[in-house]
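Q: What does the assembled structure look like for these inputs?
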Amino acid sequence: MALDREAANRQVIQIFQEAAPTLIELKPAIEVIPGMTRETLLHAGAPISWENMCGPMQGSVLGALVYEGRAPDLETARQLVERGEVHFDACHNHAAVGPMTGIISPSMPVWVMEDRTHGTVAYCNLNEGPGQSLRYGANGPEVIARLHWMQSVLAPRLREAVLRSGGLAIFPMIRSAVEMGDECHSRNRAALSLLVQALLPHLLASNLSSPEIAEVFQFLIGRDYFFLNITMAACKAAWLSAEKVPGSSIITAHSRNGVEFAIRLQGQWFTAPSPAVNGHYFPGFSQADANPDIGDSAITEASGLGGFAVGGAPAITGFIGGTPAELMAANLEMYQITATESQHFVLPVLGNRGTPTGVDVVKVLETGICPYITTGIAHRQAGVGQVGAGRLRAPLACFEKAAAALLNLD
Amino acid sequence: MALDREAANRQVIQIFQEAAPTLIELKPAIEVIPGMTRETLLHAGAPISWENMCGPMQGSVLGALVYEGRAPDLETARQLVERGEVHFDACHNHAAVGPMTGIISPSMPVWVMEDRTHGTVAYCNLNEGPGQSLRYGANGPEVIARLHWMQSVLAPRLREAVLRSGGLAIFPMIRSAVEMGDECHSRNRAALSLLVQALLPHLLASNLSSPEIAEVFQFLIGRDYFFLNITMAACKAAWLSAEKVPGSSIITAHSRNGVEFAIRLQGQWFTAPSPAVNGHYFPGFSQADANPDIGDSAITEASGLGGFAVGGAPAITGFIGGTPAELMAANLEMYQITATESQHFVLPVLGNRGTPTGVDVVKVLETGICPYITTGIAHRQAGVGQVGAGRLRAPLACFEKAAAALLNLD
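A:
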């Protein structure tokens, strides 16, 4: 019944609006993620079998097995998978999120994000930065070596700062970053600069030496995407208890495994074929190289960020293409398919109007307007990496399936 | 002759467009500023006598004399001035600039900014941050104590970082900050965050201890205005050699002593009564408390920043008032009175159009459009401090005087 749905939607929106996601820890996935085992690899998007995974996700899987020491090389890793010795599951099924291929393996350090209002806890791995990286399907020796360094050197130092901080409130940082022209999906420059300023006093107060602290910032500064995984974990934590509200038509995530584009409604998956991204390619690459849309990062668009805040981020056009006018028009359209305006994030250019928040499946169906997403683009083959960035619309079909399910539930 | 003027203007614009102001040193004013003496106090705006100075400038003067140890208290300092034992001059007459009252005294550390293209060098003091501060006319014991700490503790550490950097290119930092929603006159949040990131590796590479480094950042972070003085010195350095080009109708600065609003053309002063600021006041203050427009900071508007970049800084409205639409309209108007578009600073919201640059006295007269300025507001009495921020138009009368002088020169 529509009345119940309205009440459910109010409850879901209230949960998100009152959420206070706080970065409280950084620990190996095996120690904190519910249901994580030594045999498990989590991935972005809806559950998918090895055979059906796209090229870059397979590349990440093989790289992660080498990183974990389960195989000495990529070929042996492939045999391990084909013998059925790797257990796959979706990040979202474990209160986690991962950008692009989204592979989280047991030894990887993960951000631990607690919504201090509702007590829910979510997880995301550390971002490796631009260029060749595991999350884009690259899996060469430098990629694996960087992951080992992040695990053994970077993470313990960052953990020190996080623990000393007593917990970093993330949504206020994102709010400031949005005021500074980030949309916090594909542009994170201001957010990263705010993170540096937030970590700095705690690292300086620790027992770490200046060279040890310098190494941390040498890695962070310039790696703007490093903040994205923190944003993703914060959004996941903020929506977690909302996923348990029955009857709601508000989605809690867009989530793509590189083959299927999924939305999450009441904790269930509704999928459609993953679309191509309208891309702005790095030199030497084109649409022919591009994998379809991939990654859990578009949880930002479910949270009033990314394409839902991009009207305030005109500097992003150099990276994702488009024009400021096009981005603003798309951003404004999102108010037609959302339940409310964010109390967390505001757009100064719209006189501090809250960003459109809470994508309502019913409104998407009624208007035919689909969520607007900014995103990075992976090469379609394993082992290559990022080839560009761009923008796209979520496919209508997954909203149609969700609406049909809603009718059955009503 | 108009032909000569066009050639002169092209030359002036070329100088600014090719300038590469670089932060190279931080030294006591007495050691570096040409013509500085132990008896000298430099001030913002055109030259003015003690009797004619506005309240906050007199307050700053008295505070500076206590800071310098020339008087044990403000009353003795006043007697010193009245006995004629203090030599006053305009900052601009010494290749320097100072925000608000702009008092630079001999012991104050000053940024040394070299335009590496033309070899010119300009100077600005350190910004004390918000609240009660000497530059706003406050002169209590905490204000003086902070200045002593900045001189003896902060400046040597910052100097260490600047020297280790080999020189920090400032215009590229400002370009990034403008892309991040600063206009770099009254909003400097992104610029400050970029400065923190630029100084960090050099401080960590120094022999300073972690607590010593932490003190530096504890002071800097949150004091967004700290970057303004760096921007001002950079702009002054960039225009310095342009001031020597005869026949040009492009101004090189707006400069206000709190009584008169001046523009600088070919190194000469043209003044009009300083207007009131359309202010956005801190709680408890109103227009009745406000001093007329004051400070050398509006050299930013002569350089394609401040009101000339404010269309890209909508978050500033919470601080200076107005609406994003009003700020954008005023910003766009500035293209009608400027010679060119900046090659240094671009507005992403206008598709990376260069900011309007090079205010042409002739175009101001032809259009009747006056430069749009964002600014802080000082209390009109000595000793109080900042009471708000706002926006205003430069007075037409000083452009009329400059145009008349141009005709005589032609």
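Chain B has 13 helices and 16 strands.
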